[in-house]
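Take a specimen:
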Amino acid sequence: MNRRLNRRRTLPATLAVLSVPWMLCVAPPGSAQVADDTKPGLSLEPCHLQGYRQEVECGSLEVFENRSTSEGRKIEIRFAVLPAVDETSEPDPLVFFAGGPGQAAMETAPFVRAIFSEVNETRDLVLIDQRGMGSSAPLECELPEDEAWLLTTEQRREMTREMLKQCLAELDADVTLYTQDLANQDAHQILTALGYEKVNLYGVSWGTRSALLYAHQFPEHVRTLILDGSLPIANAAPSFAAVDAERAMKELFDDCRSDADCSRAFPDLSADFDRVMARLGDGLEISLPNPATGAPLTLLLTGQAFGDMLRSILYSAELSRLAPIIIDRAADGDYRPLMGVSGFAGAAADTMTLGATLTIFCSEELARFTAEDLDRQKGPGLLGFQMVENLQTACEVWPKAPVPELYRQEIRVEAPALVLSGDLDPITPPRWGERMLEHLPNSKHMVAPATGHNVGPQGCASELMRDFVASGSLDGIDGECLQEIERPSFFVDLSGPSPGPVASPDATEETDDATTPSEDTEASR
């Protein structure tokens, strides 16, 4: 019997017990006539997806869990099609590859439809819950809630080991057979069965890796790629998480310092941050109202947990405008703003499936770590170290598949690719977009200033993606309009933000080139 991840939206227990997934992706479900009964082996039915009002079409495909032997247990891979509005639509859909890893694609329908509404006028949108995730034979594990909060770090790790052992005993699955290469084979089988000869791919966060590997596995099938928040092969996640999060935190301190209202309200923000970290150390018992229920709550808050909560807030430029006041209040011993905002920031974890996350991380990422990768996490920094340690703890228990053969191949994709990066992204900053270009000889990389993780909903990005998909070419695709994005004003107190956006200290009326770092500048941060 599968046990579901406890999805009560209280304090983010996953941060206290097992700080994964690392890349929360998006906020928390026609043509090629997919309803045509001639499509082999697939029967589609009208359905409704969570948070999405319009009726769509849903289906499933039964596949062998072990694709190499085509024997034994079978699993159902579920998917949804948001049919094109125009009946005379284009034959190539846009296929969404979700993040995480572990995110349920079908639960992101409102997000995908919002940024691709114009694409959906003439093209189907396809959302596939990949094997082990969402509604497709999910590898779900139950995480404890409030009982974890008074445990020490080592006690929580031991509880994690025991919880995962119990989960594995109850799952009816060979969890080593849920890697990305096999999930991509499932997706390809579905897309070809639906009659799509060519597809356009949109991947966010971990989904950029998924889409890159899919395009490598099935190059003749891919018309275009859009990769938003890149994770190239060179980044064995989360080996650079601490370094990249530190960079984003430094950007926050610098932007606050350059903003008159923020610097006046928080003149020693960096020092305040260091003071909180030192005070929390290996754990400080604090009491406060549960931000979701108001009930009294006591917990042991460590410096690493504080840093990890801040890291989750930095994913969004909108949420990070609250970071200065969160740090300021914490320096005075008030952790209520931290707990309230971090719970909201972690809401995307509700769409994640923990077992699938672990199979991919343990088999495809930590298995590729070098000694240098581990040493990189053990410096004086803070925003990512806990993530690696927690994953290592989980992978002691979770069965691992051999590293997929794909990772030993030269990954090169000829299809035109648009690569998007947010300059403030704490987990996949622009330097990884530059590295992604090594796999993509026909590509352009566009950096959105004042933007965190996930460029798609920001500024003119949806129009750029629309034009790119419509033409199937990078000719004429110019990201200059992204330079109009400005960091939202910081909150200087809990009544609201200061008026007007933050001004970059280097910005002038004549040029905004400084907001798009060069590869050398970016890599050195």
